[in-house]
Amino acid sequence: MKRFLPPILTIFALVALNVLLPRVMNPYYFQVLMLIGINVVLAVSLNLVNGFTGQFSIGHAGFMAVGAYASAMFTLKIGAPFAASLTGVPLPVAQGIALLMALVAGGLLAAGAGWLVGLPSLRLRGDYLAIVTLGFGEIIRVVILNVNAIGGARGLPGIPPYATFFWVFGVVAIVIGLARNLAHSTHGRALFAIRDDEIAAEALGVDTTKYKVLAFVLGAFFAGVAGGLFAHFLSYLNPSSFTFIKSIEVIAMVVLGGMGSISGSVMAAIVLTLLPEVLRSVKDFRMVIYALMLIVLMITRPQGLMGTRELDLGALFGRKKAKVVS
Questions:
Q1: Can you give the residue ranges of every domain in the chain?
Q2: What CA–CA distance (Å, rounded) separates 28 from 23?
Q3: Chunked mean pLDDT (size 10), the chain, 326 residues
Q4: What pLDDT does residue 323 have?
Q5: Which of 48, 218, 290, 310 is 20 to 30 A from 172, alpha carbon to alpha carbon?
Q6: CA distances from 69 to 58, 98, 159 (A)
Q7: Helix, strand, or coil (residue 87)
């Protein structure tokens, strides 16, 4: 019963908040809250690559773009007509089914792109891998700009707004749960071994290429899912949302939170999404203050907010405290 209690409580809480928050919360604050959820998914997914395996990918916005456009086109061509055909099903349920199919389609296509990039390039390390992933992100953006079937430089409007609070933060809960379970599994220990010393891990029989590709594909899949949520929340996509700067923002969340710390990625995603909004009152100096705060924080705490530690939420449900993975 203790094992099933947290998921059941989480589902009930998400359903209740999904009904309540849009009615009582200021639309602007609600939009920021939804963007926080999407950024949490992006940060945790990139942490699987940069934090867990010690690689350095700076093309995460490319995988997000693949998932966003793939899921949006799926909904426009298949999902929305399918939801409309379910006459005997309540509208939120029909839309939820269509969104789920679109998120899976976008995530799988992004995972496929991650596999195509990761399989040949993850034999590289450090700066070389960063350059490859940077090139991939730019290739995706330029391709989107020049394909009129998906809107090109004009963008893609008219995407059904199916991404509700329930779906965004439901995905957040799933991603955090999967990342936490992976960190405390045999596969997670293999990933951390690769991060700490790849040569020693190979000597001990760890298939380093296999595990690095696995982390890369998982990270790309959830980046694609985050892109799908982004598309179905804003109802409009533009290639300018997936530039190199977006990848840098997600990297900043991972580094600021602590490389390998899931709790740190969540905290940093919240902080770095809220800071630009909080600083809007200072207008022209907003991004200058934002950058200075990041510099000061990284000088005073280079290991990030959490380092390699995790918050122990399991104790709330009577579970034994897990050991910190370092």
A1: 37-244
A2: 12
A3: 80 92 93 95 93 86 94 94 88 92 95 86 73 88 90 90 94 93 90 88 86 90 96 93 89 88 91 86 75 81 76 51 44
A4: 45
A5: 290
A6: 20, 15, 10
A7: coil
- Say if CB 114 and CB 219 are below 8 A apart: yes
So what's the pLDDT on residue 281? 78
Residue type, 149: A
Per the CB < 8 A criterion, the answer to whether 194 and 50 are in contact is no
- CB neighbourhood size of 31 (10 A): 14
Cα separation, 61 vs 194, whole angstroms: 24
Length of the chain: 326
Q: Is 138 exposed, middle or buried (0-12, 13-18, 19+ CB in 10 A)?
A: middle
DSSP 96-129: HHHHHHHHHHHHHHHHHHHHHHHHHHTTS-THHH
Q: Rounded to an integer, what distance in angstroms lies between the CA atom of residue 124 and that of residue 209?
A: 10
237 DSSP β-pair partners: 156
Helices (H) and strands (E) in the chain, counts: 13, 2
Specify the 3-state DSSP secondary structure of 60. Answer: helix
Both tokens assigned to 209: 């290429």
Residue type at 245 in one-letter notation: I
Nearest-5° Cα angle at 113, 237 to 78: 50
Take residue 170 and report the two structure tokens written for it: 């439901």
pTM: 0.90
- Nearest residue to 22 via CA among 33, 11, 37, 12: 33
Q: Where are the alpha helices (DSSP H) in 162-237?
A: 165-183, 186-196, 198-203, 208-234
